[in-house]
Structures are given as structure tokens and as C-alpha cells.
Amino acid sequence: xxxxxxxxxxxxxxxxxxxxxxxxxxxxxxxxxxxxxxxxxxxxxxxxxxxxxxxxxxxxxxxxxxxxxxxxxxxxxxxxxxxxxxxxxxxxxxxxxxxxxxxxxxxxxxxxxxxxxxxxxxxxxxxxxxxxxxxxxxxxxxxxxxxxxxxxxxxxxxxxxxxxxxxxxxxxxxxxxxxxxxxxxxxxxxxxxxxxxxxxxxxxxxxxxxxxxxxxxxxxxxxxxxxxxxxxxxxxxxxxxxxxxxxxxxxxxxxxxxxxxxxxxxxxxxxxxxxxxxxxxxxxxxxxxxxxxxxxxxxxxxxxxxxxxxxxxxxxxxxxxxxxxxxxxxxxxxxxxxxxxxxxxxxxxxxxxxxxxxxxxxxxxxxxxxxxxxxxxxxxxxxxxxxxxxxxxxxxxxxxxxxxxxxxxxxxxxxxxxxxxxxxxxxxxxxxxxxxxxxxxxxxxxxxxxxxxxxxxxx
Length: 459
Description:
Layout: H1 2-8, H2 12-27, H3 43-46, E1 64-74, H4 82-96, H5 107-114, H6 129-145, E2 156-160, H7 164-176, E3 191-192, H8 194-197, H9 204-211, H10 218-224, H11 227-240, H12 249-266, H13 278-296, H14 301-305, H15 308-326, E4 335-340, H16 342-351, H17 376-379, E5 385-393, E6 403-409, E7 412-413, E8 424-425, H18 426-432, H19 434-439, H20 442-445, H21 455-458
Parallel strand pairs: 1-4, 2-3, 2-4
Antiparallel strand pairs: 1-5, 5-6, 6-7, 6-8
Helix pairs in contact: 4-5, 4-12, 6-7, 10-13
């Protein structure tokens, strides 16, 4: 009964905001890669340091001690890019140009015209204050989940992409650990490692045939012109009393993303959210997921194959930890934390075969993909993290069981493909991914074809 009494005590001004909050709750699950981390871990809204209901199930295996933790982390909540801010400014300016007399006929447009356009291009994708909190809290939760690894005097290897938001995220993660690690000053610096965190930039085949090839996004472009997006476009144009010809899918998407940014950055329900229903949000989420699928996921093999350099590096460090343990040497890298992007994690997860649907995501199968596995907001929200934990286990029946591995995505245990279990012997895991570990060579995978062939034929 206590919550009911608390609600009765709310001031009327707060009560007026409640419908907006409720409306926003219907949209926030569809923001794709612009989703708050709290969407995948709702318990963090109440307590950002809670280990959540899954904490019990992720306890260490019996008689096993962690040797090494490797965390691949997406940067925290960020501001929009300069391009997104320009498009938002363009849309906002169109609303401001409308005659004042039209306000009564178009209340949504009037509300948005009165909305203060506070984004500046200089913010260009930088880490927001909430992003720093994302990282500090993640560090503290991981330390609470794996106290033996994060104990004092354990060495932390901290790396990042060269992007400002990632460097700042790495520094915030380190800050979240406080003085508990007792690190020396030479270990506080965040190492820049674009070869691993931005492998896609260094893959000539990906850059030429996907990143810079408009034809590679033909499914995305087709969906922008398709019936589902047309319906959303017409509805938004009507709400804003604008000719539908003045809007396009990109402008509608930037309005929707502004709704997501205001929630993630400022924890407020933006008036931009009022333009969209939950059905509209599902369509716009699919548009975002189509782009992720064809540019970073299963759409083209090179998307995932370009990440084998990172995958192999993970296993090289695990191999070294196993060898050091067998030789009774201290583990040289017990903690490895690397901060990158959604574009770092998504290809790696595709390489490992996670979140793969039976049918590819296409412009013409939106309805059939309603229950798809590939939903980027559930996989790589802000502060997304993929964690590999290597254990040494005593009291085992065979020597193969002495070294075991768990994987967590966004602090939830993942089931391995080869066993459908949440823990695997290290040897079984290596054997399952043997082909990638032995035969995926970054230089060869990423080399552009020497023959004169069209990009789409090659893909």
C-alpha cells in the first residue's frame, strides 16, 4: 500500500508529467543503438549498483577461481553527432517558420517550435555526463561481481578507441573503481588501440564494399520508401501540419532519435516523443536494425570476418593466462577492459553466431521479423559490455575441465552454441571456434579483390 500513499502525496505539477512518462515508457524499448542501458537491465533505474535478479545465477562455478576477465565495452551515453544535430536544426527551423496563427490548428508543431533547441554541433558525439555515470557504475558492479579479480594490487590493462567518447568512458570506468586497485600512476593511462577497437576502419574490403558503397544499403533505402515508413511519414507530417513532401525518412528518424536522446541524456520525456505511437516506434526500430544488420551484422560476411583480429586477440590472452597458470606463474593480465563502439561489438557477436535469425532482415519482411533475435537495442545499447571470464577449477574429473569459461552480455550469462550451457571448458570453446581461430586472417579477409568486379557481386 505504500506506493499508493506516495502517489497521493505527489504535487499536482508532477502528476501532470505522469502521462508523458507513461507514454515514453511505450517508446523506450525501441530506440535501437540509442537505447539506455537500463532498457536491458531495468533494475538499475531503482539502484544503479544493483547486481539484479541474475546475480545468483552468475556466481562462480563450484571450486573454481577466476584467472582473467576480458571486457569489451561500448562507450556510455553520448550526445548526437554533428550531422544529426544539423538535421534536427533544419526540422526545428521549418517549424519556427510556420505562421503564429497556425498554432491553434497544430498544437504539436507549436509545442515543438517552442522547444529550446539546445544541441550545438560542437557536442558532436561526445560523452554526456550520464555516459560517465554509466561507466563508473558498470565498473563498480563488475568489481562487486568479481571481487577476487578486482582486488587490490591486481593489474588493470585499459584500452580504448581514439574517439573522445571512448577515451572519456575508459577514464570514467577507471574512476569508478576508486583507489581499490592500488594502481601505479603509469597504469592509469588509457591506451589507444584502434587496430582492435576500430578494426573496421582498417579493413579495406569493408570500407570500399560496405561503408562507402551506397548499394550495400539497398534494403535500408527500400524500407525508407516502403509502405510502413510511408505511413509514419504521413502521420508525422499531419501532426506537424507540414506537406508530406517536406519530410523524408531521415528527418522523421532524427525526430524519433531526439526523443531517445532526451531520455538517455537528461532523463526527460521530450515533446518530440508525442509525434510517435508504439507502432511507429517499432517501424523506426526496424529501420535502425536494418542498417545495423547490413552494415555491422549478418548482411555481408566481411562485416563479421573483419572482427576476427579482435576475436583472436581475446583467445591469445586467454591462452597466455592458461599457460601462466599451468606454470604456477602470476597472471600477467588478470583484467583487460577495452572501450569501443556498437560497431566493435556487433560484428564480433555475429562472428560468434549470436542473435542470428533464420531469415535475413529485409525491407519486405517487416511483419515476419516481429519476433526477431536481431534487435540492436537489446544487444548493444549504450554501455553494452561483452565479458569473457576464465576460471581455474579444482576437484575436476578430467584435466580438460580444469580451465573453464563464461561469457556475459550486458551482465547476463550467455549460453554457448556448442553446449547450450552457460559454462564451457576452455578446450571445447576453442575447438568450436577452431576455424575462425586458425583460418580467419585479417589481412587476407580485408584485402580488396584484384579483379575488376562490382561491389555487390563481391559481397
